[in-house]
Amino acid sequence: MTTRRTLLATSLALPALARGAAAQGQWPERVVRVIVPWPPGGSTDVMARILSEQLSQKLRQNFVVENRPGAGGNIGHDAIAKATPDGYTQGPITVGGWSINQYLYSRLPYDPDRDITPVSMHWELPNILVVSAQHNPTQSFAEFLTWAKAQRNGVSYGSPGVGTTGHLSGSMFCNRMGIDGQHVPFRGAAQIIPALLSGDLTFALDNLASYVPVIAEGRLRAFVISGAERWPTLPNIPVMREVGVEDFVVTSWCAWAVPNGVPQPIINRVNTAMKEVTDSPEQQQRFLRAGARTVWATPEDTLARARRERSMWQELVRISGARLE
């Protein structure tokens, strides 16, 4: 005979069972919103759209991009962190959101360890040092270094904003090389490149993806890359250690994320789909053409990398003197 207690226990268990069933087999039943914390057209936006297209195909549901830029990505990061943890809000969070901004800003609206959960690494790319081919007289890294040190009034370097990897790597470069460098923040490469081409800006050590087309045109000259190895589409450009600069491996990277509390089966499903994208030679080449290397990792390894790099970025923030409210 069914008791009242048994009926009550069964009724209380039904929502949990339904959520579990949805997580295991029915998800996604509707459109998945992909929040991109950066403006349209930038590296993060382009890579997120490529991946969203692939996830739509593999998971048989639309992944629709919504750009939420501002505050160094923090507006979009917070939107992901505060979303309902049902798997229907996801998005790319760059190294800034995982490992830099907590040292740069006096207060964050979200906690990267408590409020967001990584699904997988997404992409990675190095920074590249570029100058104007028309306005800079140097032809090699060694010449540039000698020339920059000799400038009586110093030199200027641009970045997509205070605390970005372009700013922090440029600051570290000037500090290490003994260059009198003045940081000039811009809103993105779309503003940095014209400033370089006009001769108003000396150099940039910024995300490679944005500069490849202008380098190919010959209007910008590239001297060195901040990655551990040469870039496949720019095989003639050396890395820092090859030009005598040791211990200077700085890369920008991005990890796909969901709000904390999303059921593990959903995370596993997206992670598996992302691995299929990463394993595809066609998609690998597509990402390379866009200027980045697609990267896969387990959620655990992704979080471990974010935590491992924090001490390095904290030191770079200190060297730069950057601080934001």
Automatic annotation (TrEMBL):
Residues 1-23 form the signal peptide. Keywords: Signal. Belongs to the UPF0065 (bug) family. This is Tripartite tricarboxylate transporter substrate binding protein. Coiled coil: none annotated. The keyword Signal applies. Transmembrane segments: none annotated. SUPFAM superfamilies: Periplasmic binding protein-like II (SSF53850).
